[in-house]
Specification:
heterodimer; A: 422 residues; 4-stranded parallel β-sheet; 17 helices; 39% helix; B: alpha/beta; Glucose Oxidase, domain 1; globular
């Protein structure tokens, strides 16, 4: 299929906007062909996932563009990298790997991207508005942008993110278009007690369940309380984008393109209806742990990056208690959020209590955690999903309340009653 | 049949029971499937014609695909039932910077069901042939 190029697209392709724009445009057009797009469209911002070091290929690609003098044309934020530049001593990995990772980071900054180093760019002050076309990579950011902000990005991988940023263009296909944003599977939440739905921990579990069943579709969730918070929708989306390929969901009464179930389906019938029952939710929760144990060796929170509100909650949960000396307690967050949380007085007391803040990166993508033989506890379904494969650790999933209680005592403390009681 | 990325490959089919996130799921330096929750966890994708119905998971999958093509430990080709941009991007990037083309093909369900793990197949511009 041929993509109809605008005059600007053709100028880029012909090298009249510089050789970097020509290279970037060639990648965009090739991707547009695979998406069966008939044209490209303007995007107003980009979020780059390609800045995380996975080996020489990612650096070769960045250098290929940087050496041609590439500069981004639209506001562009950067995802997590492999290093914590604020707390560099936390990195325990191979020195050479760290050096290459730093070169990669420098490349993207040189191309004009903002050194935000966060997987939660939606927590920054400037974020896209309803209907705005953007090119975001990072699966949790994609699902948040589409679902919660109502901005429009396709489920982009690495490489295209920087190319879209250099040209300000992306394929007019996929989730950029109205017709591809309607829900397909209806998830009916019922028989679940209101007190469980009022807990943060319910949302990542629901997301994990959704991702497994919706696969690469657009789930519509009916039966949640109205106005579910952004942090909860964040956890839900991140989980669904890990267990499945969900790039967008609708939560009726909470997300902007789903004020009613009918709106979420654009008047069409669901292709399938799945009942979300208490038994299924408990079973989804159980899948997130790889082991049961009586003691834990570490806690990792903040995947995706913790928000100011979440750090505040942590501060309140700790009170005057401290982390048990046998436990390493990590919280990953963005540097901007850490600054704001510090100004509000939450960070210092938590650090004094033994909490280790990790910025610019995340504990499951780079060697930061001290090696532990005991299981690691997390409140993140995404972390629970990926960390066992990435780090070779056993994981126990729990509510943030459970994580804090366990972190303080060193013994596993999980309040199971919330899952079963009325 | 649609070629998302053109290329030639010969190899043994590894048909996955479930979609795999390449990031967090495959070690690009060895080809091992490290996602232990995956039914094919512990097996290797190196040199295989990998079959999976559709994509899953992290955006960083593109980088892992590209790195596998560079290191030579990735799959020799990938056959899917639905196009996946994250996988396509990894293959496009490696083709652009290294000139190494790993074929990525989308086929109809009936053809997808024709092949099973252990089959030796060849991918060329003409399509897929059982050897």
């Amino acid at each position: 299929m041929n993509v109809n190029l605008s005059e600007f697209d053709q100028r880029c392709l012909d090298g009249k906007e510089g050789s970097a724009a020509a290279s970037a445009m060639r990648v965009i057009v090739r991707l547009a062909e695979t998406m069966e797009a008939t044209e490209l469209l303007d995007v107003t911002s980009a979020h780059i996932d390609s800045c995380l070091y996975h080996g020489p290929a990612v650096l070769d690609f960045a250098k290929w563009l940087d050496d041609q003098g590439a500069k981004v044309r639209i506001p562009t934020t950067l995802n997590v990298s492999s290093l914590d530049l604020i707390h560099p001593d936390l990195y325990r990995g191979d020195k050479d790997w760290g050096t290459q990772a730093r070169l990669l980071m420098d490349c993207y900054v040189r191309m004009g991207c903002k050194p935000t180093w966060t997987c939660a760019p939606y927590q920054l002050e400037e974020r896209p508005k309803l209907g705005e076309q953007v090119a975001w990579a990072e699966s949790n950011a994609i699902v948040f942008a589409n679902s919660v902000l109502g901005a429009r990005t396709h489920r982009y991988g690495d490489f295209i993110d920087i190319c879209a940023a250099i040209c300000g263009r992306a394929p007019a296909a996929g989730l950029h278009l109205d017709k591809n944003r309607r829900g397909d599977i209806l998830f009916r939440v019922h028989e679940l007690n209101d007190s469980l739905m009022d807990r943060d921990v319910f949302y990542p579990v629901l997301g994990h369940f959704l991702g497994k069943h919706a696969r690469n579709g657009i789930p519509v969730i009916q039966g949640l309380p109205d106005g579910v918070s952004e942090d909860r929708l964040k956890a839900l989306g991140a989980a669904a984008a890990s267990s499945g390929s969900v790039g967008m969901f609708h939560a009726v009464g909470s997300t902007p393109e789903a004020s009613t179930t009918e709106e979420a389906f654009l008047g069409f019938e669901p292709t399938e209806v799945i009942e979300v029952t208490p038994e299924k939710i408990v079973s989804a929760r159980n899948e997130l742990s790889t082991i049961s144990a009586s003691k834990i060796g570490a806690v990792s929170l903040g995947t995706p990056h913790y928000s100011v509100q979440e750090i505040k909650k942590l501060f309140e949960l700790f009170g005057s208690e401290s982390v048990d000396p046998g436990v390493n307690f990590y919280v990953s967050t963005g540097r901007d959020v850490l600054t704001e949380a510090s100004l509000r007085g939450y960070v210092q007391p938590l650090e004094d209590a033994g909490v280790i803040f990790v910025t610019d990166t995340c504990t499951y993508i780079t060697p930061i955690m001290e090696s532990v033989t005991l299981p690691v506890m997390t409140d993140s379904a995404k972390w629970a999903y990926y960390a066992p494969g990435n780090l070779g650790v056993q994981v126990i999933f729990g509510a943030v309340e459970d994580c804090v209680a366990s972190g303080i005592s060193g013994d596993l403390c999980i309040d199971n009653n919330i899952w079963f009681d009325g | 049949m649609i070629f998302l990325v053109n290329g030639k490959a010969n190899g043994e089919v590894l048909k996955l029971d479930e979609p795999l996130s390449f990031w967090g799921g495959v070690d690009p330096q060895t080809g091992e499937i490290t996602d232990l929750r995956h039914p094919q966890g512990g097996m290797s994708v190196k040199g295989k014609i990998l079959m999976m119905p559709f994509g899953r998971g992290s955006s960083s999958g593109s980088s892992v695909i590209a790195e596998g093509i560079r290191s030579g430990s990735g799959p020799a080709g990938i056959i899917m039932m639905e196009a996946d941009e994250i996988i396509a991007l990894g293959a496009i990037a490696a083709d652009e910077i290294y000139g190494k083309a790993m074929p990525l093909i989308v086929v109809e369900k009936t053809e997808y069901e024709t092949y099973s793990t252990g089959d030796q197949i060849a991918i060329s511009d003409d399509g897929i042939t059982l050897i």
